[in-house]
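General statements about sequence and structure are easier to judge against a single worked case. For one protein, we set the task of working out the structure tokens from the amino acid sequence alone. The sequence in question and its structure tokens are set out directly beneath this paragraph.
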Amino acid sequence: MAHRPTRSTDWGFPRWRGYGTGREAKPVRLCDRHGCDAPGDCPAPKSPNNPDRWYFCQEHAAEYNRGWDYFEGLSAEEAAEREANETRSANGYERSRHYAWTGPGDGTRSRDELRALTALGLDDDAEFDAIRTAWRKLAKENHPDVRPGDPDAAVRFQAVQAAYEVLRAAEERRTTA
């Protein structure tokens, strides 16, 4: 008479064993480097544009990556074209970086820029000339040399400087993009 399997304790909630554990043995892939017995859990392409993969341990994957040439087998023109195509798509992400996670504004300024405008006492849609004017005015009012005995003035001066640096860098990114 054949042995009949018993009911599993695996159904329903709560599970009586940990998630991700199974009754069957887990297959372990060994490192593809000859003579290595470590688990091969780091896939690496066998050649550029090839779906076949080597599976190395971390040590051998690091060794493999040190010698990897992304443009191997391409002519200088093909390599330049591939680099230009990938740079173009990466620049698209850079340009949309100011959208960040949702926040106030119309999407033209980041949250840091909006905080900097608030520190300078300006509206969200202030032009850079108005930013520069407000920065100069507040910097002159709060400069430690103008108010030598006021420790709060030094803190306000540093906040104004930091706000201006954030807005100046954002303006440079907008004008060079």
In short: The first strand starts at residue 42 and ends at 45. The beta strands are 42-45, 53-56.
